[in-house]
Amino acid sequence: MHKTVAVKSATTAASALLSRLHEHGIERVFGIVGREAAAILFDETPGLEFVLTRHEFTAGVMADVVARITNRPQACFATLGPGMTNLSTGIATSALDRSPVIAMAAQSESHDLFPNVTHQCLDSVRMMAPLTKWCGQLERGDDIADLVDSAVSASMVEPVGPSFLSLPVDLLASAVSDEPKEPPVTSGIRGLQDPDWRREADEAIRLLQEAEHPVLVVGTATIRAEAVELLREFVERHQIPVITTYVAKGVLRHDHPMTYGAVSGYMDGILDFPALDTLFGPADLIIALGYDYAEDLRPSMWQHGDPAKVVRVSPTVNPIPRVLTPDVDVIVDARSFLRHALANTGEMRNTPHDVEPLRARVREFLSDPQEYADGMRVHQVIDTVNSVVDGRGTIVSDIGYFRHFGVLFAQADQPYGFLTSAGCSSFGYGLPAAMGAQIARPDQPVVLIAGDGGFHSNSADLETVARLGLPLVMVVVNNDRNGLIELYQNLGHGKSHDPAVGFGSVDFVALAKANGIDGEHARTRAELAQALRKATEVRRPYLVEVPIAYDFGGGDFGALDV
Ligand code: TP9
Ligand code: MG
To answer: In the chain, is it the N or the C terminus that has fewer CB atoms within a 10 Å radius of its CB?
Structure first.
């Protein structure tokens, strides 16, 4: 029998914390609670629910993706010590992938806070500081709302990223003033703005009007600046090709003539075709709009043909001038730049350069009708997923070799219609990212593509998918190995080493069923198309396992610099 504990009536720091988060528009806290449950129940604030996950990394990534899609901060929570360390890869993801996440972890009681000495006590502030935009610890219960405000403000400034708040358990339980607080000042995402940005922008416009083959290289800061409609108008008016980073796909419809695609350092190798040269060779001006090196579209990828002039448009200072030395540096958000450019760009003399040979190669590659005895090829899987999703929803990719096929071929017609972790690329990201996308877009199909390595590194949250009833379609491409790493073994050594990449086989359909999720195996295009159609119609979680194999030979992977 448990003792009945007297229920405290005063407002606690815990309830003040939750109500302040809610005042910032946060509706969910993703995470796992530990012994601080005695101080915080998470039912204190109507409109703010707790979403229990099986791993803290899952909680961090779910918060990241909901924040990314809604362009508003989201929250995740872990217990002290190991809960906090498990959460750290989720926090690293929102740091390198630029998402405004408010991460929190409990901490030992303030009178017993001796890192590396007290039970489960680690120096979480020192650990999280390098990963975060702002990092602090509650020292007086009454400060809680101010600390939440600081965490939110910092996270919403470009480069957008996570904040971390450490919460000693006794202070969480402490009584705080009942005095109503002023509501927080909320704002959208903001960044730097050079007082002279219009002069730089005018210089960029002058270069644009002189250019024959300008190209827009678009990163996700363009989406965060809510500049997608302006970008579409600008492209429509001036017929400028758009090339995107992995995650900025969808800023134009996939079938728009000016969509020249997302690029990856793997693309020449995958297509066995000089794709980067075709895309960038003729360009005489690159406008890197909302450009961010972390998104893995390296300037070296666009350095083909005669050197092009480069304009950088970003709400941050140029972080590594050695890597990117722009001719014109416009320090402002993409929305302000595009508005200015739409008002000031006159007659253009440009013609979009011809990429038809690349498009023909992609069409030929994707239509591959062959049935391979050792498993489908990933391009066949993506092509089949496209035919069912048809740009209507979100395709989410975990990390692995298959991810680069998704970057190149997955169709996306809305911002974040294709999601992957471009910056951090922790494998296991896919399942929680798909869960977050489904929560943010409840009425749209969400299809996850994950490899056996990444998926099984974080598959415990299948139960969470079932419990929350998220109607995800999960496609696991299974080759019983960490295929991408086998590719690198071959690139570096000319051979594979199985003990470092090979797994025993896992029946992922049985695994899904063990977690209350239906599924099936699909071995051909026809079987996969049928399974996907069924899965998108049932509106219940569904897992399809597809045996696959890779052909590593042939193509040129020189852009990877291995
Ligand atoms: N550990 C973490 C947390 N993240 C990463 N990215 C690694 C290790 C290194 N990457 S991408 C990958 C690894 C081990 C293997 C992916 O294997 P898979 O079966 O999920 O995909 P595939 O198709 O390449 O075999
Ligand atoms: Mg694999």
So the answer is: N
CA 401 – ligand 2 centroid, Å: 8
Residue 426, ligand 1, Cβ within 6 A: yes
Which residues face 520 on adjacent strands?
A: 544
CA separation (Å) from 89 to 81, 93, 232, 311, 461?
Answer: 14, 6, 35, 33, 16
Domains and CATH numbers, the chain: 13-172 (3.40.50.970), 197-354 (3.40.50.1220), 367-560 (3.40.50.970)
The residue whose CB lies within 8 Å of the most ligand 1 atoms, and thus the one to mutate among 380, 403, 427, 449, is 427
Neighbours of 209 (CB within 10 A): 17
Euclidean distance between CA atoms 483 and 400, whole angstroms: 7
Q: Is the CB of 125 under 6 A from ligand 1?
A: no
According to DSSP, residue 502 is labeled B
Tell me the CA–centroid distance for residue 361 and ligand 2, in Å. Answer: 26
The rounded distance, in Å, linking the Cα atoms of 186 and 387 is 41
- Residue 478 CA: which ligand 1 atom is closest? 19
Atom of ligand 1 nearest to the CA of 452: 19
Structure tokens at 417: 């219609």
Residue among 108, 148, 107 at smallest CA distance from 128: 107
Residue 96 CA, ligand 2 centroid: distance in Å = 24
Instruction: Spell out the per-residue pLDDT of the chain, length 562, in tens.
Output: 455 554 554 799 999 999 999 999 999 999 999 999 999 999 999 999 999 999 999 999 999 999 999 999 999 999 999 999 999 999 999 999 999 999 999 999 999 999 999 999 999 999 999 999 999 999 999 999 999 999 999 999 999 999 999 999 999 999 999 988 899 988 899 999 999 999 999 999 999 999 999 999 999 999 999 999 999 999 999 999 999 999 999 999 999 999 999 999 999 999 999 999 999 999 999 999 999 999 999 999 999 999 999 999 999 999 999 999 999 999 999 999 999 999 999 889 899 999 999 999 999 999 999 999 999 999 999 999 999 998 889 999 999 999 999 999 999 999 999 999 999 999 999 999 999 999 999 999 999 999 999 999 999 999 999 999 999 999 999 999 999 999 999 999 999 999 999 999 999 999 999 999 999 999 999 999 999 999 999 999 999 999 999 998 767 888 887 7
486 Cα–ligand 1 center, Å = 10
Whether residue 476 has its Cβ less than 6 Å from ligand 1? no
